[in-house]
Structures are given as structure tokens and as C-alpha cells.
């Protein structure tokens, strides 16, 4: 999915970040790898891989600390030509560079993670999905593996629990960047897209994700977009896709229309070009018809409350009334025109002192007076350049012009002026409002500015007099609201009651009706762009008809084109493919023109989760049977930026597909999880006064003039809550993490991390950084920490390396019965890891594994059964190492489908007892032991006990008498007695 973010482009990386090496990993002599610590600015040329890697550039103030390097094009240029340094030999803590490619190859060759077409459907299913990526030229960034590792852990865990797992990956590959690149370079978007996809795939494979690659799909492939077009036809047939003349966001620089969400503060999200409003004939999808269902069905979803709330606000349901006002001219003569307003406060009808229409209101030109026409036209022109957001911002000063006409309030017959103001939007409600300055903040501000009367009709308690400086927008008791002519009297009623009374009255007297409005607009579904799905519609100019293509004619292929530049007139680039545009309608034999706009990028991502269930089906979008089994997606993980648009559009299409019997569930995604953002490494800033002396951060503001300097983290230490200079602890610094960006030079490239620490470390680190849903900062020392943990795990099972640096082939685990202590430690770990995976609290699951390894280091022997269980626990997190250890423990098959260990509650009881210890029958002390502790364990504890050890150290023991849970009596040999018993 395209988040619009710009990340690094690394044209150099055209192959996996590393390959299996035909040399022992501790080989002396020339080392083809990077040193772990780099001197800033150093250059390392890697002849072996034919790839250049460069050290972090020291930016005037940049961190000198060894960072994971970013290989920014600009940096490359800067460091090229610098002297090549001889790298010291670095030992790897464990041979990840050998085992990771080995297991990736194994999985690929054995199709370990393939979910077969025919499966045993009596078993439970688990469909876990990532928001599929937009394959940008920049390749993966470290944010991607965060979500992907989480879903991979879930997929691997559920497989081991006996679920049929669907864990697919694909590409959301239509979109603007490939087309922009085509415009700039002439490279066909298909070529760029394929190149990017290949790179993404290689990168993802290097991280050991257990995707079923046989199900890979790409939205740009005709076999896929045939079904996107098919869905469009179904929408069209049901009247849910229609054309309308709508004011659109027209971006002259991009030569295209943009959706509201692609326009930020009046400029295009991409490129920051100015955007204006312009009416155009466009394809629209009637999402508004589904507004109520989209709202109601939110309640049962296991989604973040914040996302559900954003969707509710986006849909924005408002209950109120539409009321009609007759238009009269300056002489109060009837104009035979009516303006309908939408209000959520019919109770304030007696407080209306003017009406406002939006500048784009369709009736405006019909009632504007000749005297005011010029001003109104000028005002309309200015307003057309503003975005809706700008127009409705509360803080913005209100502007408007008088239309020269008046309207009659149906409640009291008063003639009130009609104004034109851009704080009223043409696209909401009826595009006209009854303004009540006493009770609406915006109207109040407007009335004060243009000297319009203010009539108070609501009081909080029925008596207190209003503060004329502010509007009272709350509900309350109605005052000053009756009229004998209209027969309406709502004085003394509460606002809610009064609103109902006014609405009933309006309905009875044909002055209006009850109305529910939505903020949600129909979805503008056409783009004047080349790189998108063609819309399968033919136009006939003579009749003005639009005819859908027959389903059998799908896919309607996107024609090849050499010139991708937008025409600039709003005519899409596809209009240049004349032979394609001119076509014959198969059913009528008539010649027509094809639609030349394409679908927006959102289209392909609206239903891809369905295709993964049955990706090769050429007859149906998805077979009924497969959809019934796999649907809905159990867990869907992706960025919070997709809270409304993608997730709302996909829900809309899903509901349409439900209505036409293609899917069996009302909702597509049962549970949605948003992963947090990864910010760049914390940067420390020191402050200096005008003379260049360091000053404490909190004092800098009062200086008037100061300079800032980024301080490398070796020079920083913590003092209490503050970060200070190591050399001068009185100087406090500020510490801040920034969003990773090329310009800040704090982007971390996952390829570099994999190269330096291995994929298992990257996976584990990203899960260990902090709670999965929270934002967190990257830290090089953090990744070193988890890497050390993996190395410790490796050494615990394999033993220490030989002096030459090689590790033995098998493991040091022995076939002994585990002790109670060992079982306790293991089962505690199993329970915690299982529990935490289930609630996606991966970081605390990892802590439990770390605790286990610390405990296990104290054991003399490592029982095979304990080692095996632990390896299975580790498998979802760091699968390469786990597979390798599993195989070294004597297994010939992958552990991917081994049963995930189950915690035995008997070992989870935390009961310890105080056991008296006697030496030669005399109680000399006590020890704390676990209930059911063995004689061996009790004796070991006694020997380590400070008090007891002096009786036992170096003594030969005749016998031990042990009554479990009651006593340990150690009988020493006779020759010891004198010395031992004082
Ligand atoms: C009179 C009134 C009196 C209003 C009062 C509010 C307070 P929501 O809740 O967002 O639906 N409105 C209606 N159409 C509008 C448009 N196209 N552009 C800008 N504002 C518009 O808000 C509905 C209220 O927003 C409506 O109720 C209307 O102002 C205004 F004491 O009518 B009200």
C-alpha cells in the first residue's frame, strides 16, 4: 500500500543483501564483510558481492557513533573517491550469514509455507494479512518489517498450533510514482514496477517471512485487474457507479484530478502543487448508499477504537431537517425560487437573521441581483482556489458578499438577506444554511463582521441573559420563539423537543422535512492518468449513452503507450492511444469511444484479500467454497494512515460483493492492528552562547542568540532525568527522535541491518523495541543487545567455538531427564511466550525467552527435551536460527509444522518451601526450595548457601538423608567431623 512516504532509493542493490559464502565464517585473511563499527566517512569496497557499502557520513554535526549505514545516493557521491581502509578482522558471534540463506533456500525448495489449494477444511483456519506494499523505487524501509514480522510470528505460531494458515504477499503496483518516473525518463511504468517488485521480493525473502509465494499477486497484472474491472461492472449495473459533473480538485501541474485526501492545505500531496476546484464529468461510486451499514457494522469489529472513531467521523452522520425559504428580491418581490437549507438545529429557527449559500450553489446565479453580480463572481473565483479544509477552518477569518436578494423565514415571515460565503460548502447538506448568529460560532463571527442582527432564542436555563460577545451553541430552553401567523410556538421547550416540534410543523405545512446527512461523499473514482486499470465503458457520442463492456471481454488491457505525459487539458494520457480509444461495441456493432480515465490506486487494494484465497481462478473472482472457508481475514496489520480511506473503501466493496452473493461475510477484516512508527535514532543537541560556550538547554531560550550543535552519543551521559555532556555534566542537552527521512540522514536500511546482524536479529529487534502498536525509536545498541541474546542462545546449545572460531556440528544438549527447576523455567517461558503472542505483545514474550536463557546458563546440563521446546518457542521470532538448532538436535524436517509447546500448569505453580538442612543430624540452617524439589537440587542449593557451605565445602560425604519437602540431612565422613562441626 502506498503511504506516500519517500524512502531511500538504492540503485546499487540488485541482488540479495548477502549470499552463502564458500568460506568458513571465522576465516583468517581477507574478510568480505563490513566491520561492525565504522569510522564515519570510511569507505569499504566489497569486491566479493560487487556492491559498495559506505559508512555513515559525518554531517557537520552528525552522530559519530557506529550507525547502521544509510546508502543515500547523495552520500555515495560524497564519499566516493575517499581512501579505502583496511578493515580489521571481525569475528561473528554466530554464523547467521551461513544459516540464514541456507534455510531460506530450504523453505523455497521445499515450498514449506505453501498453503495447498485442497486443504483439510475440518481444521481451523487462520488468515493473517499484511497491507500489501506499494513497490516503491526506494525498496523496503525498516518500517515494513515491523508489521511483517508480527504477522509472520502469528502465521508461524498458528501453523504450529495446527491451524491451516493463509499468509500471502503481493503488490499494490499501480500508482503515480512509476508514471512520474516514466514521464521523466521514458521508462515504461511496467518495467519500473517489475524491477521494484523484484527488489522487494528479494528483500522480503532475505528476512525469512513465511509467505506462500505461490499466491503472489500484483494489481497490475491483467489476470488480476480483470476482476477489478469485473467489480466495476457490477457496481455500474447496480447504479453504484455513475457519472456526474462535480467540482473536482484539479491540479494543473500534475494535469490531473486529485481525490480530497490527495490534497493537503490546498496543494497536492505529491509534489506540493497548487490545486483548484473545477467542475468536471467524472465517475463516482455511490459509497453514500452504504453509509448506514458502514457505520452500524463497525460496532462488532475488533479494531482499534481510534480507527473505528475515525471512520465514524468520516462517515459523519447528522440528524436534522431540511427547511425551505422562499426567495424575494430587494423590493421583496417573489422570485419564484426556493432555497433549501440543512440544519441540525431546527429549534433555532426564530433566531435566523440571514441565509448563506456556498459560492458554488447552483441557484446562485438565478437570484443574485444585477448590482451584486460582479462582486459575487469575483468572490466565487477566489473561493474556487481554496480547499474545503481552508474554507471551514474555524480560526480563518470569515468572508462573504451579499447576493442582493432576500429569503422569507417560514416560521415568522421575516425577509432576511441571503449572503454568499465560503465557510458554507457546496458539497455538504444542501449547500445553503440558515444562519443563527446567536447560537453558532461561525455565524456569530460573520454577523459581527458584517453588522447583521443577532437574535437570542436559546438560554441554558430559560432565564440568564446572553453574553453578546460569544455565541451560545449549547442546547437549552427556547425563548422568543412564537408566531401567530405560522401558528408555531416553541417557547419554553427544551432544544430537542423544540427541534422535533419544528420538523413536524415543517412537514405538515410543506415547509421542510426530517433529514439525515452524511459527511461521507460519493467516491470520485476516475484519474486522468495512464498507470491504472482502464474503466470498461464505451461512450456513444450521438446518443450520449455509456455502455459497459461485456464481462467476457475482460480484461480490457491497458494499451502500450510511449508518451505518458498528461495532456494538461484534463483529457487523460490514454486519449493518445487513438486506435484503442476508437472501438466497436460487440453487442450493437456501433462505433464508440472508450473511457480514457483510469481507476484510482485504491481500486486494486479494495479486494486483493479475496484473490489471495484463490489467486489462479480464471473463472471467478474467488470460488465460493474457498471464500467460505478463508473469509474473513482474521488479522490485518498495517499503518494507521489507512484508517479511513483504504479500510472504508474495502469495506464498501466487500458489502457490495456480499449483496451480490460473492462473499459470505458482512465485513472483510475481523481484527485490524496498526503497528507503530519507527523513528530515527535519538539525536542529542547541545546549545552554545554567542561566544561559543556550552549552555544548558533550558537556559538557551533566555539568551536571545544561541547556536545548536548535534552531539555524538559517546559524549552524552544521563544525569537523573536529563541527558548531559559527559565532560561537563552541568550542560543539559535535548534529546529527540525524528521521523526517518532522507534529508535528516537518519534512514536505516534493513539490508544493512541484515548484512551486519542477520535477519533473525532484525526481526527480533523490531519486535523487542517496544509495544507493537507504539511509536519507537531506532537504536543501534538495541539491536546489538538482541544480537547478543541470539549469540548466547546459539552458544548455550552449540557450545563455545573452537580457537579457530568454528562451532561444532551438533549441540551440547544431552539426553537427561530435566530437573524440576528446569521444567519450571521452561514451562514458565512457554506460558509467557504463548500468552504474549496471542495478544500481540511480542516484546514481553522476548523478555521471557531472555530470562529463560539466563536461567539456563546456570545449569550444568541442558536436557534435549528442554532445548527442543525452547527452540520451538523461538521459531516464530527467529526462524533461521531455530531451524538450524532443530536440525542440529537431530531432526531431518523443518520445525514449521511441529506442535507449539504447551505449558503444563503443574510447573507454573510458584510454591517454595523452607527446607531445614542438618549436618550430621544437627540443624545448621534452612534453604528455600521449590515444592517437589529433588534431593540433588536440594543438596546443590545447600552447598551454595552462604551459611551451610562452610560445613560442606571440601568435605567428603558419607550419605544424605532426604525426606522430600521435610528435611535434608547430610552425614559427613568421620574424618571431616572435627573440622566441620565447630
Ligand atoms: C442552523 C444552526 C443553528 C446550525 C445553530 C448549527 C447551530 P453537522 O453537525 O456538521 O452536520 N451547515 C449545514 N450545511 C452546511 C454546509 N454545507 N457548509 C457549512 N455548514 C453547514 O452540522 C450541521 C450544521 O452545520 C447545520 O446546522 C448548519 O448550521 C451548518 F445554532 O443550521 B446549522
TrEMBL record:
The keyword Signal does not apply. Residues 312-504 form the Leucyl-tRNA synthetase editing domain. Belongs to the class-I aminoacyl-tRNA synthetase family. GO terms for cellular component: chloroplast; cytosol; mitochondrion. Residues 823-930 form the Methionyl/Valyl/Leucyl/Isoleucyl-tRNA synthetase anticodon-binding domain. Residues 519-680, 738-766 form the Aminoacyl-tRNA synthetase class Ia domain. Residues 131-263 form the Methionyl/Leucyl tRNA synthetase domain. One of its GO terms (biological process) is leucyl-tRNA aminoacylation. Its EC number is 6.1.1.4. PROSITE patterns: AA_TRNA_LIGASE_I. This is leucine--tRNA ligase. It comes from the Eukaryota. Keywords: Aminoacyl-tRNA synthetase, ATP-binding, Ligase, Nucleotide-binding, Protein biosynthesis. It comes from Eucalyptus grandis. HAMAP family: Leu_tRNA_synth_B. The lineage of its organism: Eukaryota, Viridiplantae, Streptophyta, Embryophyta, Tracheophyta. GO terms for molecular function: aminoacyl-tRNA deacylase activity; ATP binding; leucine-tRNA ligase activity. It catalyses: tRNA(Leu) + L-leucine + ATP = L-leucyl-tRNA(Leu) + AMP + diphosphate. InterPro entries: aa-tRNA-synth_I_CS, aa-tRNA-synth_Ia, Leu-tRNA-ligase, Leu_tRNA-synth_edit, M/V/L/I-tRNA-synth_anticd-bd, Methionyl/Leucyl_tRNA_Synth, Rossmann-like_a/b/a_fold, tRNAsynth_Ia_anticodon-bd.
Amino acid at each position: 500500500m502506498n503511504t506516500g512516504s519517500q524512502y531511500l532509493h538504492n540503485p546499487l542493490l540488485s541482488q540479495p543483501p548477502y549470499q552463502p559464502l564458500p568460506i568458513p565464517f571465522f576465516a583468517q585473511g581477507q574478510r568480505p564483510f563490513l566491520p561492525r563499527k565504522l569510522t564515519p566517512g570510511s569507505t569499504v569496497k566489497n569486491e566479493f558481492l560487487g556492491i559498495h557499502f559506505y559508512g555513515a557520513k559525518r554531517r557537520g554535526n552528525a552522530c559519530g557513533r557506529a550507525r547502521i549505514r544509510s546508502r543515500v545516493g547523495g552520500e555515495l557521491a560524497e564519499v566516493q573517491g575517499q581512501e579505502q581502509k583496511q578493515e580489521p578482522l571481525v569475528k561473528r558471534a554466530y554464523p547467521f550469514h551461513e544459516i540464514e540463506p541456507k534455510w531460506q533456500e530450504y523453505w523455497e525448495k521445499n515450498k514449506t509455507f505453501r498453503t495447498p489449494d485442497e486443504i483439510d477444511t475440518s481444521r481451523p483456519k487462520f488468515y493473517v494479512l499484511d497491507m500489501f506494499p506499494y513497490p516503491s523505487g526506494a525498496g523496503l524501509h525498516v518500517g515494513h518489517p515491523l508489521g511483517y514480522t508480527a504477522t509472520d510470528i502469528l502465521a508461524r505460531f498458528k501453523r504450529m498450533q495446527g491451524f491451516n494458515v493463509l499468509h500471502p504477499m503481493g503488490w499494490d503496483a499501480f500508482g503515480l510514482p512509476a508514471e512520474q518516473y516514466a514521464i521523466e525518463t521514458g521508462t515504461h511504468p511496467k518495467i519500473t514496477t517489475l524491477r521494484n517488485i523484484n527488489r522487494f521480493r528479494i528483500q522480503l525473502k532475505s528476512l525469512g517471512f513465511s509467505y506462500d509465494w505461490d499466491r503472489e499477486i500484483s494489481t497490475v497484472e491483467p489476470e488480476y485487474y480483470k476482476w477489478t474491472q469485473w467489480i466495476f461492472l457490477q457496481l455500474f449495473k447496480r447504479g453504484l457507479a455513475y457519472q456526474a459533473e462535480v467540482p473536482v480538485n484539479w491540479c494543473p501541474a500534475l494535469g490531473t484530478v486529485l481525490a480530497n485526501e490527495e490534497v493537503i492545505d490546498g496543494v497536492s500531496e505529491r509534489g506540493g502543487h497548487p490545486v483548484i476546484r473545477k467542475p468536471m464529468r467524472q465517475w463516482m461510486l455511490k459509497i453514500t448508499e452504504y453509509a448506514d451499514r458502514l457505520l452500524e457494522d463497525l460496532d462488532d469489529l475488533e479494531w482499534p477504537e481510534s480507527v473505528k472513531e475515525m471512520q465514524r467521523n468520516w462517515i459523519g452522520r447528522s440528524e436534522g431537517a431540511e427547511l425551505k425559504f422562499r426567495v424575494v428580491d430587494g423590493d421583496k418581490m417573489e422570485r419564484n425560487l426556493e432555497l433549501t437549507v440543512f440544519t441540525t438545529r431546527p429549534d433555532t429557527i426564530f433566531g435566523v437573521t440571514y441565509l448563506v449559500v456556498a459560492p458554488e450553489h447552483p441557484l446562485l446565479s438565478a437570484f443574485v441581483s444585477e448590482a451584486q453580480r460582479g462582486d459575487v463572481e469575483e468572490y466565487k473565483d477566489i473561493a474556487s482556489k481554496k480547499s474545503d479544509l481552508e474554507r471551514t477552518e474555524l480560526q480563518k477569518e470569515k468572508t462573504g458578499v451579499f447576493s442582493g436578494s432576500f429569503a422569507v423565514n417560514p416560521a415568522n415571515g421575516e425577509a432576511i438577506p441571503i449572503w454568499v460565503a465560503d465557510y458554507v460548502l457546496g458539497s455538504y447538506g444542501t449547500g445553503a444554511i440558515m444562519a443563527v448568529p446567536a447560537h453558532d460560532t461561525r455565524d456569530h463571527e460573520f454577523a459581527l463582521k458584517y453588522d447583521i442582527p443577532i437574535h437570542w432564542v436559546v438560554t441554558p436555563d430559560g432565564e440568564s441573559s446572553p453574553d453578546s460577545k460569544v455565541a451560545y451553541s449549547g442546547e437549552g430552553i427556547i425563548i422568543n420563539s412564537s408566531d401567530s401567523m405560522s401558528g408555531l410556538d416553541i417557547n419554553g421547550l427544551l432544544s430537542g423537543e423544540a427541534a422535533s416540534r419544528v420538523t413536524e410543523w415543517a412537514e405538515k405545512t410543506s415547509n421542510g422535512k426530517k433529514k439525515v446527512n452524511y459527511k461521507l461523499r460519493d467516491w470520485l473514482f476516475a484519474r486522468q492518468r495512464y498507470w491504472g486499470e482502464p474503466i470498461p465503458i464505451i461512450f456513444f457520442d450521438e446518443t450520449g449513452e455509456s455502455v459497459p463492456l461485456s464481462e467476457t471481454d475482460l480484461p480490457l488491457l491497458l494499451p502500450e503507450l510511449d508518451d505518458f505525459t498528461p495532456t494538461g487539458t484534463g483529457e487523460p494520457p490514454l486519449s493518445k492511444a487513438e486506435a484503442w480509444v476508437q472501438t466497436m461495441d460487440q453487442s450493437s456493432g456501433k462505433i464508440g469511444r472508450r473511457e480514457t480515465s483510469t481507476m484510482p490506486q485504491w481500486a486494486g487494494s479494495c479486494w486483493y484479500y479475496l484473490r489471495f484465497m484463490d489467486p489462479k481462478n480464471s473463472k471467478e473472482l474467488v470460488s465460493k467454497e474457498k471464500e467460505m472457508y478463508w473469509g474473513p481475514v482474521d488479522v490485518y496489520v498495517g499503518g494507521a494512515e489507512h484508517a479511513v480511506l483504504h479500510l472504508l473503501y474495502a469495506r464498501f466493496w466487500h458489502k457490495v460483493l456480499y449483496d451480490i452473493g460473492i462473499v459470505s461475510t458482512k465485513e472483510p477484516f475481523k481484527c485490524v492492528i496498526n503497528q507503530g512508527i519507527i523513528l530515527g535514532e535519538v539525536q542529542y543537541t547541545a546549545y552554545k552562547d554567542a561566544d561559543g560556550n556550552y549552555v544548558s538547554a533550558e537556559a538557551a531560550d533566555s539568551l536571545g542568540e544561541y547556536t545548536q550543535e548535534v552531539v555524538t552519543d559517546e559524549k552524552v551521559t544521563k544525569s537523573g532525568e536529563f541527558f548531559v555532556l559527559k565532560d561537563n555534566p552541568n550542560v543539559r542537552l535535548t534529546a529527540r527522535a525524528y521521523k526517518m527521512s532522507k534529508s535528516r540522514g537518519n534512514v536505516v536500511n534493513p539490508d544493512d541491518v541484515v548484512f551486519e546482524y542477520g535477519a533473525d536479529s532484525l526481526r527480533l529487534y523490531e519486535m523487542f523495541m517496544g509495544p507493537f502498536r507504539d511509536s519507537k525509536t531506532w537504536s543501534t545498541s538495541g539491536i546489538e543487545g538482541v544480537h547478543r541474546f541470539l549469540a548466547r542462545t546459539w552458544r548455550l546449545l552449540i557450545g563455545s567455538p573452537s580457537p579457530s572460531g568454528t562451532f561444532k556440528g551438533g549441540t551440547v544438549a544431552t539426553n537427561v531427564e530435566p530437573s524440576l527447576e528446569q521444567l519450571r523455567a521452561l514451562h514458565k517461558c512457554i506460558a509467557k511466550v504463548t500468552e504474549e503472542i496471542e495478544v500481540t505483545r511480542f516484546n514481553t514474550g522476548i523478555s521471557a525467552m531472555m530470562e529463560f536463557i539466563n536461567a539456563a546458563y546456570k545449569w550444568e546440563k541442558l536436557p534435549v527435551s528442554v532445548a527442543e521446546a525452547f527452540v520451538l518457542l523461538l521459531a516464530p521470532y527467529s526462524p533461521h536460527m531455530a531451524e538450524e538448532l532443530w536440525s542440529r538436535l537431530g531432526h531431518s524436517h523443518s520445525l514449521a509444522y511441529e506442535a507449539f509447546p504447551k505449558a503444563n500448569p503443574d510447573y507454573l505453580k510458584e510454591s517454595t518451601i523452607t527446607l531445614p538442612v542438618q549436618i550430621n543430624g544437627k540443624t545448621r540452617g534452612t534453604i528455600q526450595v521449590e515444592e517437589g524439589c529433588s534431593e540433588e537440587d536440594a543438596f546443590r542449593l545447600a552447598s551454595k548457601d552462604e551459611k551451610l557451605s562452610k560445613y560442606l565445602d571440601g568435605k567428603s560425604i558419607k550419605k544424605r538423608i532426604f525426606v522430600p519437602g521435610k528435611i535434608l540431612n547430610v552425614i559427613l565422613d568421620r574424618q571431616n567431623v572435627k573440622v566441620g562441626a565447630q
